Here is the input.
Amino acid sequence: DFFVYPDVDPFYDALGPGTRENVGGQANADIRTLFALVTPGEIDDAWVSIVIPHELTHLVFDTAVENPYHFPPRWLNEGVAEYQSQGYDAGYRQTIESGARNGTLIPLDGLTGQFPTTYERFSLAYAESTAAVDYLVRTYGQDALVALVTSYASGLTDDEAFERALGIDATEFGDAWLASVGAVAPTRY
Here is the structure.
């Protein structure tokens, strides 16, 4: 089912307490149900053609990775959904170029759980997630992305999944992605 709400209050009521303020859509894989906030003024907005495939992609992703041990990093889940629904567009490219230039990019290992809550950092996290998936596909191919996603179904750790699909661990991938956009990888001790 896909429920669309015309007003923010019933939308957040449906999603429940603790829903973050930047949420415009949500996929609940446990009940195979999708939710979106689309106000009457947004019916013809381009965002509607993004949120629907984005949330559907989350259901497919969740089905592909389902296991009782470990869920993939949030950046990968959101990156695949954005890559499939919107792509690595000019706006995201500009955000990444600016972040690389200003030194404000968040290393991918900092985007494994919840995304930041401020609009600027939240938007940056989505741009980075999409850019990283785009880099993965351009560098390793679409089959490697599929192999990475499906490897999580067997309960692999992030490093095991990345090693199996790409031949490098998750940190090495994140550092290579940062280098590809002209950013410096963080110093690790």
